[in-house]
């Protein structure tokens, strides 16, 4: 009897622990994204975008203090980058947390004044909207999607592109 009770407690404890683990079940996925190279700005259905037609030049991966042109960043996503964006009024300690996460290869970080969530993680065809930069799902998202199986052009560069908007010249 005591052994049965111990087993029930162990199984229950494991089940509870699993249910408390962060998961990516709230990631929104998008299909049928265009992949044409175009020389003009593109209007996207998501903010920030997760794919679609884009500029022929990708945006160099890295950390930026100003918004990044969507039509260049989407090309970086096509190469397997994860783009972390945040509302410009996000607390400085939260931005620092994102900077730490973005210090890896194939990562972009920039503010985005048009997004409706404080923090957004985007990869080609996938997006996770969050309230805080210290959400434990962000590292899971990066692990799953940075150079992940959804990447249309795995192995393509995330540096050596541009940091100048080739549409506007800024």
Describe the structure.
Strands 1-6-5-3-4-2 form a six-stranded mixed beta sheet. The chain starts with a helix and ends in a 25-residue tail after the last helix. It has helices spanning 2-20, 70-78, 92-101, 137-145; strands at residues 28-29, 62-63, 82-86, 107-111, 119-123, 126-130. The protein contains four helices and six strands; from the N terminus they run H-E-E-H-E-H-E-E-E-H. It has a single domain, classed as 3-Layer(aba) Sandwich (Glutaredoxin), CATH 3.40.30. The protein is α/β, with parallel strands linked by helices and 170 residues long.
Q: Which band does the percent of strand residues land in?
A: 5-15%
Helix content: 25-40%
Biggest sheet strand order reads 1-6-5-3-4-2
Spatial extent as radius of gyration:
19 Å
Q: What's the structural domain tally? A: 1
Shape: globular
Structural class of the helices, strands and pairings? alpha/beta
